[in-house]
């Protein structure tokens, strides 16, 4: 019958393709660098926890300050030199030439010949979530310390904003490209969304 002939013509390639897609998705969702992912969040989250619980743990301001600064310093070094390279394939640093001029240098991992990257989507989410959220928390701490007149904590909080903000700025520049203006990119994005809304009223598409 026609139904039997059409079923006999079905190839098994689709099944293998489905298996390949399934394995590809599992690889994307798998955390390939669990140690790097752990320490990407450990130092910065620990610094925030120590800051919040410092007065409950000890009455020594110096001990708390030294502990927080050490955690922030370890976080800055680990994120800048290790976790960014392993988890998202990005790296940045600042170099001073012989004339005393400071240069920002950005690097991104090249895509392999098969068109795949060694980083996974799960690691990328962990990296960017920790990279963006923690500096915002330190900014909130800065305003809180300022308005509550906790002057002695301002130096610690400002250091948290500066160190984690520097990593955030460096990796955003790596991500979008060192020659691109962030303001112009945001303007172009909003302009595209506005044009789409005008063309298709009631439908909002994300690029």
TrEMBL record:
Organism: Rostratula benghalensis
Stated family: Belongs to the TVP23 family.
Key words, A-Z: Membrane, Transmembrane, Transmembrane helix
One protein family per Pfam: DUF846
Protein name as annotated: Golgi apparatus membrane protein TVP23 homolog
InterPro entries: TVP23-like
Cellular-component GO terms for this entry: Golgi membrane
Taxonomic placement: Eukaryota, Metazoa, Chordata, Craniata, Vertebrata
Keyword Transmembrane assigned: yes
Membrane topology: Multi-pass membrane protein
């Amino acid at each position: 019958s026609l139904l039997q002939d059409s079923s006999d013509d079905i190839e098994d390639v689709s099944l293998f393709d489905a298996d390949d897609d399934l394995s590809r998705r599992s690889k994307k969702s798998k955390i390939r660098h669990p140690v790097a992912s752990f320490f990407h969040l450990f130092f910065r989250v620990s610094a925030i926890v120590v800051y919040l619980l410092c007065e409950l743990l000890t009455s020594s301001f110096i001990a708390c300050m030294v502990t927080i600064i050490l955690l922030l310093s370890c976080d800055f070094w680990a994120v800048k030199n290790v976790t960014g390279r392993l988890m998202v394939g990005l790296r940045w640093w600042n170099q001073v030439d012989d004339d005393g001029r400071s240069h920002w240098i950005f690097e991104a991992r090249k895509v392999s010949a098969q068109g795949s990257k060694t980083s996974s989507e799960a690691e990328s989410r962990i990296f960017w979530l920790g990279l963006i959220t923690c500096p915002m928390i330190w900014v909130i701490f800065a305003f809180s310390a300022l308005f509550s007149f906790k002057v002695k904590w301002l130096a610690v909080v400002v250091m948290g904003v500066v160190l984690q903000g520097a990593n955030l700025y460096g990796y955003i520049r790596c991500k979008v490209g060192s020659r691109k203006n962030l303001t112009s990119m945001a303007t172009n994005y909003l302009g595209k969304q506005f044009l789409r809304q005008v063309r298709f009223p009631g439908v909002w598409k994300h690029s």
